[in-house]
Write a structure and sequence with these properties.
Blueprint: E1 21-23, E2 39-42, E3 46-51, E4 57-62, E5 68-70, E6 76-78, E7 89-92
Antiparallel strand pairs: 1-7, 2-5, 2-7, 3-4, 3-6
């Protein structure tokens, strides 16, 4: 449900703007604290190991061509397998 004062809080529609962002701290034992994100922003190169909301775990190689908003839903960003420096991954909600 969304507010009539701010109609973009309806995150069920992928075309609505991003409402919030949080710098990600990779963690092998915990999912993202605000739940699955709608997108990720990468500002550094390296690898990122992530698990999707459906439970698929993949490791991606991120280069500068990925910088900016990347529409990947992630539930967990793993410390093991992620080489992108701290502060260079942002979860978008």
């Amino acid at each position: 449900m969304f507010s009539s004062k701010y109609p973009f809080l309806d995150t069920s529609n992928d075309l609505t703007p991003i409402n919030d962002m949080q710098v990600v701290t990779p963690n092998d034992g915990a999912d993202l604290p605000n739940g699955p994100c709608r997108a990720l922003i990468f500002t550094g190169s390296g690898t990122v190991k992530l698990t999707t909301p459906l439970g698929t775990t993949v490791t991606l190689t991120i280069s500068s061509s990925w910088f900016g908003v990347t529409y990947i839903r992630a539930q967990r960003i793993w410390a093991t397998g992620t080489t992108i420096a701290a502060g260079n991954i942002v979860a978008c909600y």
